[in-house]
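Appendix C reproduces, verbatim, an entry submitted by the partner laboratory led by Prof. M.T., so that reviewers can inspect both the input and the predicted structure.
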Amino acid sequence: MQYSDNMRIIDVDFFTRDGQTLAQSLIGKYICRNIDGTIHRYRITETECYIGTEDTACHAHKGRTARTDIMWAEGGVCYVYLCYGIHNMLNFVSGTEGTPQAVLIRGVEGYKGPGKLTKALSIDRSFNGENLLESDRIWLEDGESLPYTATPRIGINYAEEKDRNALWRFVVR
């Protein structure tokens, strides 16, 4: 299925919002992935945001490193990192340049779990820094809003209690 230019999200303002707003806005949008000339579209069903150096669950909490450098970019680029030495994790950087924030894409229709979806979409660390506004490999398309529920984030037992309890995970109902 080919994408339509009028459906593609190319407005940088969509991505430069704060991470919590972007995480909610992504529910119902489509991740589009060009794999060997075939366009695959997946509706986003679950997101989780990580906001700044004060958020003890956020990779930026411990400062700027080679791994996290892309989080300080202007929103609209991919942040892909390896988790447990096995799974690539796809995040979209949000906010303005210099304010490290990102939204983890935890699920899409047909694939629940961030490791499963990156495997299905053939996303590896070569996508780290990929510009969602200009890429011909990965981009977002508009989709209708879907009802969702906010819950605490998962898999962050290392974070402080206030950050573990923040309702920053958004899941389609």
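The domain at 12-172 is CATH 3.10.300.10 (3-methyladenine DNA Glycosylase; Chain A). Additional entries are available on request from the coordinating office.
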